[in-house]
């Protein structure tokens, strides 16, 4: 038997590991199962190139709980270790066997799926164990070895009687970590971290019904005896998940099944998927799904899972996946993403930016092909994906460059245009006297219906832009498209929004207009409304409330930017009250008594507020009572 001290540079590394190196204790199981997977894949590679003269077979990894003995076992059938290798790899802390192996076989092992970046992975066992044993037998014709350490720098290393190839790690679970002896806890961790590991992982057994009279004709009374229950290995992982296969091997149902496997509690089908598969200048595979999103920009993120050679790392993929795609779901797997020792956080690296750019390009290309192949279907899905695409146009210049090919602008009556198509469609009718093409838009089809109705009666198109970031988006579109301006349909009277040569003459004299304005301003609250007299068609609404485009847009942009833009989110709501001097009501107000004027103005103002959804609470109750009074 050999005894000795572990070669570390501090007196006792284990408290350091337990307290500082790994912030999350549960990842010990991920590290140990990952090491077992490494050992198995290494053997597979060595047998494939003829360096290991053994039968690879169908190895699996087994995780066993011994609750009574307070032990947790991780057993593999990989290449194992000799006593000399135990001394080298286990006792010389921070020396990664995986990295040395990759260096030695870097050309032939490039695609073998061996996980690097382990470093101190094995020592994470001491986060939950007061003592750790390694019982290992190398594929080489050498005796088995038994290593034991109780969490101090001292260890023992002695021969063992183990005859079968592979390694067994035995964790003597500490009293403060007994939860890791519970079946539900281990099952939970294996499912979280090792669900798609490339080697089958056995955790207990399960009952399975098998047909015992296969192919035989069975009498009706014997049908209950067709099946018999047998105990089979409970394999908790899928070693060949969809993202590891070529897109040509998968159909639509395969992608949907994998989505259900990833999100078993998600009942909505994904709208479509994007398969990532690149091996130069970096390695990256994965599948991203567009779920139904609607207008909710605050929808829960962290739904994309990051893997490294099928080992789960994190669901915080910030930096790898472009920010606007963080609302998607799915899997990204890359051995080229650098991780720290706990594999929990990304480090700054040139590859990460390349990966992010690649994903952006891949998503853009997929959206363009979906649009070109079946535009009608793409239009049906538009409301469920638009928030992602509009956000992408604002946050990713490379995406913005390509977005013109597939981003849509729906009209209030159900047509869909790209921006180029829209400009061509509206230029003949919606170009004003200054040569500006005016895009009329509504943010709410119902609330702004009366304004939409006025605009469409003139033959104008009104598009529906109802996402919360629309003010930022149209600001960008205006900046990038000369002589194109956006105006919400309720920002002013339609004749003011799209000014033409013809002008209306007011029926009222300047003196009458001043008198009318004074009468109205005695009733209308000045802190919220600015009264504007306009000579409009006599059939136009007598009173109309509008909200100036610039002020409203700035307030909306401020609200979606954390309220900081010029402090405008704190400004009170300001509206214009447009009074049509050519309406019969204007003349009636002028020719009425002072008390009657107040009643008429109050009623007309409330009707205008009602059409904008601004009449609420006590004011609405009072208006309804007053209106019923006039019916008596």
Automatic annotation (TrEMBL):
GO terms for molecular function: ATP binding; ATP hydrolysis activity; ATP-dependent protein folding chaperone; unfolded protein binding. The keyword Cell membrane does not apply. ATP binds at residues 31, 35, 76, 81, 96-97, 167, 343. InterPro entries: HATPase_C_sf (IPR036890), Heat_shock_protein_90_CS (IPR019805), HSP90_C (IPR037196), Hsp90_fam (IPR001404), Hsp90_N (IPR020575), Ribosomal_Su5_D2-typ_SF (IPR020568). It holds the Pfam family HSP90. Belongs to the heat shock protein 90 family. NCBIfam families: PRK05218.1 (NF003555). This is Chaperone protein HtpG.
